[in-house]
Amino acid sequence: MHKITIVCLLLLATAGFGHKTLAQDQPNNQSPSMHESAPPEHFYHLDFVVEDLNAEGKVVNSRSYSTATSTNSRRAISIRSGSKIPIVTGSYGGDGKGPSSLVNTQYQYEDVGANFDIRDVHEVSDKLAFDVTAVLSSVAAAVEPNLREPIIRENKWEAVVFIPIGKQSAIFSSDSVDSKGSTRVLVTATAIQ
Q1: Is residue 74 part of a domain?
Q2: How many domains in the chain?
């Protein structure tokens, strides 16, 4: 009787182990098929136009920036255009006694201009979607005669945009802080053949 009990226990243990082995060998229906592929890569030329408008809405100044991108790019595309403006942060010396008494002035440089960062470009039907950050900065006109340091104006936008391919679209706009005018950013996406 003892031998029969041991044989039965071994059969039960083997049957349970065999069931687990079969379950592991079955294909997983949730895994991606080896025949599926990524969508084809398409290239686009992006033209950004920054327009300054007066109080009546007429364009008084515009600047253009261009770059190329693709729908499968995993890195950010950047445009940087500007100048470095010196700003006085301090001075020392200048006691008036000899050549070593010159005033030494210290400066900090501020970037002024246009910066664009484009990420995650992809097509949705006949439109193009992407993340864009735009930073536009400029030196404001002097309004206070006793203030020697420049005033830096800055507009910054960050958004996901969705634009028709081949058609110019306004993606950002803002009223000016120091006038009744405004600033807007237009972009056109053109497919590169």
Answers
A1: yes
A2: 1
